[in-house]
From TrEMBL:
<protein>
    <recommendedName>
        <fullName>O-phosphoseryl-tRNA(Sec) selenium transferase</fullName>
        <ecNumber>2.9.1.2</ecNumber>
    </recommendedName>
</protein>
<dbReference type="InterPro" id="IPR019872">
    <property type="entry name" value="Sec-tRNA_Se_transferase"/>
</dbReference>
<keyword id="KW-0648">Protein biosynthesis</keyword>
<feature type="binding site">
    <location>
        <position position="84"/>
    </location>
    <ligand>
        <name>pyridoxal 5'-phosphate</name>
    </ligand>
</feature>
<keyword id="KW-0808">Transferase</keyword>
<dbReference type="InterPro" id="IPR015424">
    <property type="entry name" value="PyrdxlP-dep_Trfase"/>
</dbReference>
<feature type="site" description="May act as a substrate filter by repelling compounds with a negatively charged alpha-carboxylate">
    <location>
        <position position="83"/>
    </location>
</feature>
<dbReference type="InterPro" id="IPR008829">
    <property type="entry name" value="SepSecS/SepCysS"/>
</dbReference>
<feature type="binding site">
    <location>
        <position position="114"/>
    </location>
    <ligand>
        <name>substrate</name>
    </ligand>
</feature>
<feature type="binding site">
    <location>
        <position position="106"/>
    </location>
    <ligand>
        <name>substrate</name>
    </ligand>
</feature>
<comment type="function">
    <text>Converts O-phosphoseryl-tRNA(Sec) to selenocysteinyl-tRNA(Sec) required for selenoprotein biosynthesis.</text>
</comment>
<dbReference type="GO" id="GO:0098621">
    <property type="term" value="F:O-phosphoseryl-tRNA(Sec) selenium transferase activity"/>
</dbReference>
<comment type="pathway">
    <text>Aminoacyl-tRNA biosynthesis; selenocysteinyl-tRNA(Sec) biosynthesis; selenocysteinyl-tRNA(Sec) from L-seryl-tRNA(Sec) (archaeal/eukaryal route): step 2/2.</text>
</comment>
<feature type="modified residue" description="N6-(pyridoxal phosphate)lysine">
    <location>
        <position position="292"/>
    </location>
</feature>
<dbReference type="GO" id="GO:0001717">
    <property type="term" value="P:conversion of seryl-tRNAsec to selenocys-tRNAsec"/>
</dbReference>
<feature type="binding site">
    <location>
        <position position="279"/>
    </location>
    <ligand>
        <name>tRNA</name>
    </ligand>
</feature>
<dbReference type="Pfam" id="PF05889">
    <property type="entry name" value="SepSecS"/>
</dbReference>
Length: 471
């Protein structure tokens, strides 16, 4: 365009003037380096996907600063007389945010460009495109809709349910195959909806989806059923939902289907299940965390869809229901991380986790067997692993003591679960043995995860410490 040609001419003239102060050979070399970085940005804007090779930090900083300079609060001699002009009083805060102070979206749509914030709006649009590419490379090739939200996963699910409720205002029940994680229930109740829990079925050590019970409940609720909220990533011994079977039920009953894919992006099994359910039946949307899947600070989630029939309508409703403007901080974190990794780095991160899983499981099994325990067999969960926790006859040491013992040994992330006949109220519902994903829990166990970012050092330290704690 004429504007781009003018900018290039201006940049060229600046370099030409600089040769009057510094030898031309040095300036030409610097100009070439600058041109290489500008070409990387140009490629990003044209291709709208992750670069094959990750960007270096200098390029990342340059691009973010350049985009931030497109927001009105950074304009030279800008006269701001509105009530919100992107003013930041603390220099440290301004530096932390690269001067990006206007946020994203407008009161009518979180994805709508802001007149005062061209740079922030561009970062958001690019981040949605990069996230779509990352999800495709993780195993769900059909992803077509993607919205990154500055909300953690639970609130992301709540907003998704509110959008569904807007599309079907008379429906109020959410059929929910049980997953003992409080945020799921809270997401439902925060949307003003009623959860209908479905107990899981035990298949060997695993807990699997009770498909016949879901079918019966959908038949019973009829048009009052808003959706089924299924789960992919979860704590062992619960397994990945029988997603395709659930999706077929939803399609047959004309009921929406949302999957809680909290940390499932890192798992090929979860992503392929999502792709299959979306392609062959009905899966309106799947929701995932940015921190667990992309190693950024807590605060963001991604609502995506690979369902060509239902995804677009839900995405539009979701974007339109967000009230007011939104923070760009979690979006900027993901934007920088995906460019830092590049496609090659992202795929390698996924590969490393996948390669460590069987090694971790084998070594953990060897350690616990020395103490009379066993690794639970959960072939349909390729992130979390469960280990039996036998209580010694007449012993006074409760199962939870293992978790405390490991915590003081600087081991985090271990979940200890024990059978209980005392009901626990969560989200207005009573559950037995809460944490076990079933009322019929007969033995104590603990679970650990082979999650994205784990390395051999983590595994070595944990195995040494759990060996001592069990002893």
């Amino acid at each position: 365009s004429a504007a781009v040609c003018h900018e290039q001419a201006m940049n060229q003239s600046i370099f030409e003037l600089a040769t009057g102060l510094v030898p031309a050979t040095y300036i030409n070399q610097a100009q070439q380096a600058r041109g290489s970085r500008e070409k990387m940005l140009k490629t990003l804007l044209s291709q709208r996907r992750m670069p094959e090779k990750g960007w270096d930090e200098a390029t990342l900083r340059l691009v973010v600063h350049e985009l931030a300079a497109l927001d009105s609060n950074t304009f030279v001699d800008n006269a701001g007389v509105g009530e919100r002009e992107g003013r930041v009083v603390c220099p440290l805060v301004a530096q932390r945010h690269f001067g990006l102070a206007h946020g994203i979206g407008r009161s009518g749509d979180i994805a709508e460009p802001q007149p005062k914030a061209a740079g922030s709006s561009l970062i958001y649009a690019l981040t949605n495109a990069l996230a779509t590419d990352a999800l495709k490379r993780a195993g769900c090739a059909g992803v077509s809709e993607c919205t990154v939200l500055p909300l953690a996963t639970g609130m992301g699910m709540t907003l998704t349910l509110l959008a569904l409720k807007q599309l079907r205002p008379s429906a109020r029940f959410v059929v929910w195959p049980r997953i003992d994680q409080k945020s799921c229930l809270k997401a439902i109740s925060a949307a003003g909806l009623v959860p209908v829990p479905i107990e899981n079925l035990r298949e060997g050590d695993e807990l699997r989806t009770n498909v016949p019970a879901i079918a019966a409940k959908l038949q019973e609720l009829g048009s009052e059923a808003l959706c089924v909220l299924s789960t992919t990533s979860c704590f062992a011994p619960r397994a990945v939902e029988k997603l395709l079977e659930v999706a077929r039920l939803c399609e047959a009953h004309e009921v929406a289907h949302v999957a809680n894919n909290a940390y499932g992006v890192q798992c090929e099994m979860c992503m392929k299940a999502i792709a299959s359910a979306s392609r062959h039946a009905r899966l309106d949307a799947f929701v995932q965390s940015t921190d667990k899947n992309f190693l950024v600070p807590v605060g963001g989630s991604i609502v995506a869809s690979a369902d060509a029939k239902h995804g677009r309508q839900l995405t539009q409703a979701l974007r339109g229901i967000y009230p007011g403007r939104a923070s760009i901080s979690p979006i900027l974190d993901l934007f920088c991380t995906l460019l830092h990794l590049g496609a090659a780095g992202w795929v390698e991160l996924l590969r490393r986790r996948r390669a460590l899983l069987p090694q971790f499981g084998l070594r953990l099994s060897e350690v616990v067997q020395r103490h009379g325990e066993r690794l639970l067999r959960t072939p349909n969960n390729s992130i979390s692993m469960g280990v039996s926790l036998t209580l010694p006859p007449g012993g006074s040491r409760p199962p939870a003591a293992l978790g405390a013992s490991l915590f003081v040994r600087l081991v985090s992330g271990v979940r200890v679960v024990a059978p209980s006949t005392s009901p626990k109220k969560v989200g207005g519902l009573d559950f037995l043995s809460y944490g076990a994903h079933t009322d019929a829990c007969s033995e104590a166990y603990f679970s650990v995860a082979c999650a994205l970012g784990i390395d051999e050092v983590d595994i070595d330290l944990f195995l040494k410490r759990v060996d001592k704690a069990l002893g």
